[in-house]
Amino acid sequence: MALRATLMFSPILLTAAWNHEFFTDMVGAEKVLQVMPEATPAETGFFSRVRAKCKNWLTGPRGSFHTLQADVMFCPMSAVSLYREDLPTICQINDIQHEYYPQFFTAEEVNHRTRFYRQLCSQATALIAISQYTKDTFREKYDFTADRIHVIHLSIQERLLGVQAEKETTWLRETGLEGRRYLYYPANFWPHKNHDILLTAFNMLVHSGSDMHLVLTGSLAEARPLLQDMVQQMGLQERVHFPGYVTDEQIAAIFRHCHCLVFPSLFEGFGIPLVEAMAFGKPVVCSNFTCLPEVAGDAALYFDPRKPDELCAALRRLDDEPGLYRQLQERGKERLREFDPEQMADAYIRIFQQWSRKPA
Question: Same domain for 248 and 133?
Answer without folding.
Answer: no
